[in-house]
Amino acid sequence: MRYRLLGRTGLRVSEAFLGTMTFGEEWGWGASAEECRKMFTAYAEAGGNVIDTANRYTEGSSERIVGELLGAERDRFVLSTKYTLTMDGTDPNAAGNHRKNLARSVEASLRRLGTDYIDLLWVHIWDPNTPIEETMRALDDLVRAGKVLYVGISDAPAWLISRANTIAEFRGWTPFAGLQLPYSLVKRDIERELLPMAEALELSVAAWSPLAGGVLSGKFTRPGADGPSRVDRGTVSERDLEIARTVDAVADELGVSSSQVAIAWTRAHHPSIHPILGARNLAQLTDNLSAIDLALPEDAVARLDEAGAIDLGFPMEFILDTTTDFVYGPSGKRVDGRRSQWR
């Protein structure tokens, strides 16, 4: 596995992150501690160095298991966790992105992880009730205190992230170095605003659910495929099933698994996307790790792009297509410009 720089920082992070939402059995579909150790070992042996967890994953068990697995090797890994989600639904201040919850959440995460610092702390989701200035200043305080080294944000609109990093830049605070966003062939919404913004601001993107909850693994489209799933078969649209069938067809032609094709596609257009590999067992993770070395042929990428195509909507479609001749004239077609790679 190769390494890339996280955003505009000097931190080296592996091409794929290990997701640990499945570490722990409290939610009914996770992995035992023994299976978690097998997956952690396989990921580390493949060269992976980013372990991604969150305070709420399996009600705290994920962080505890991750801390135990890291042990004396903790400094060799980029330990990534999140805050925002409540750990006490009876307390209104036990959730959100305000300073009090941040301080409490980080201290609790440090105890569960058995460490004195977090490499990468993510804001788990946008909290509209907390001013972004408060969040950015509080995050910067933790960086200055040495409890957190880098910060990122998950599941937030592009305008907010742009505003947050602009504020941080002008005030000398720590900016977000990366984004954590859902991205797969069946969920490409972030191509409209978030991915072009990430490219412009040089932010790394950690793509969660690259298999769309298992829909793109062949679970619902291949004969005999079954097993536990967080996705109810009845909620999967015919459009998504058609995309999954295209993934299956490409996989069969290449002699690889559907999961490998779906994961490889997330990286086909830009190297700054790091798929988060989450699995329930060693076999699943081993299969997913093989996607990192899979380079999809151009014609396969084009077929997959077409199968999962979405409308960019206004204003991007209007800007990129309908106004071209009117704005730039015939000579505009002879200019090699900066058209988004996400198009």
Explain what you see.
One of its GO terms (cellular component) is cytosol. The protein has helices spanning 33-45, 61-70, 99-113, 132-144, 158-171, 194-201, 238-254, 258-266, 282-289, 298-307, 316-322, 324-328, and strands at residues 3-5, 12-14, 17-19, 50-52, 78-83, 118-123, 148-154, 176-182, 204-208, 273-278. It has 343 residues and is an alpha/beta fold. It folds into two domains: 3-310, Alpha-Beta Barrel (TIM Barrel), CATH 3.20.20.100; 313-343, no CATH class. The strands form two sheets. It has an eight-stranded parallel barrel, surrounded by five helices. Strands 1-2 form a two-stranded antiparallel ribbon. The longest helix has 17 residues, at 238-254. The protein is globular, with a radius of gyration of 21 Å. The two termini are 28 Å apart.
